[in-house]
From TrEMBL:
This is SOUL heme-binding protein. Coiled coil: none annotated. Pfam families: SOUL. It comes from the Archaea. The lineage of its organism: Archaea, Methanobacteriati, Thermoplasmatota, Thermoplasmata, environmental samples. InterPro entries: Reg_factor_effector_dom_sf, SOUL_heme-bd. It comes from uncultured Thermoplasmata archaeon.
Length: 173
């Protein structure tokens, strides 16, 4: 079973959860398509690193999403990220041999998150991102950055069994 990063639900607004996440160690590839980025990160956790150690998979897998709609700020930079197990620190995690893999710490932050099932095609992600942003706008909640997608299941899991979420960073209370 894949371990999932822990968070605290601070409150709910309809189906949207406002979550507090702790500091998290991440491995990220930027500027590439998801399939290429996934392969690079998968190789890294499978021992293609300077220590030749396998790193356990942790969910969710996080990627940027470009949504063709008006939003507070949408980043033009694509990213694809694996959450690294919490038993590692920046000093102890295996160092990547591929320079495209960036290991970094995401400070503790608050995110608004909307969960949905099924496949993560562009229409579904756009629809759910729109629902998330509308809820936040209707409730006067300022955001920072762009919407991102979190996937919790294997790509081989049937659509009806998948857990997906769209999220965005919240600023203020």
């Amino acid at each position: 079973m894949v371990k999932t990063v822990e968070f605290e639900v601070l409150r709910k607004i309809g189906n949207v959860e406002i979550r507090q996440y702790p500091e998290i160690l991440l491995a990220t590839v930027t500027g590439m398509e998801d399939d290429s980025s996934f392969g690079i990160l998968f190789n890294y956790i499978n021992g293609h690193n300077l220590s030749r150690k396998k790193v356990a998979m942790t969910s969710p897998v996080i990627s940027s999403e470009k949504i063709p709609m008006t939003a507070p700020v949408i980043s033009d930079s694509r990213f694809f990220t694996f959450v690294l197990p919490d038993n590692y620190t920046l000093e102890t995690v295996p160092k990547p041999e591929d320079p495209r893999v960036n290991i970094h710490v995401q400070p503790a932050r608050k995110f608004a998150v909307l969960r949905f099932g099924g496949r993560t095609n562009s229409a579904a992600v756009e629809r759910e991102s729109g629902r998330l942003l509308k809820c936040l706008a209707d409730n006067g909640m300022p955001t920072r950055g762009g919407v991102f997608l979190m996937r919790y299941n294997s790509p081989f899991a049937p659509g009806f069994m998948r857990r997906n979420e769209v999220g965005i960073e919240i600023v203020g209370n």
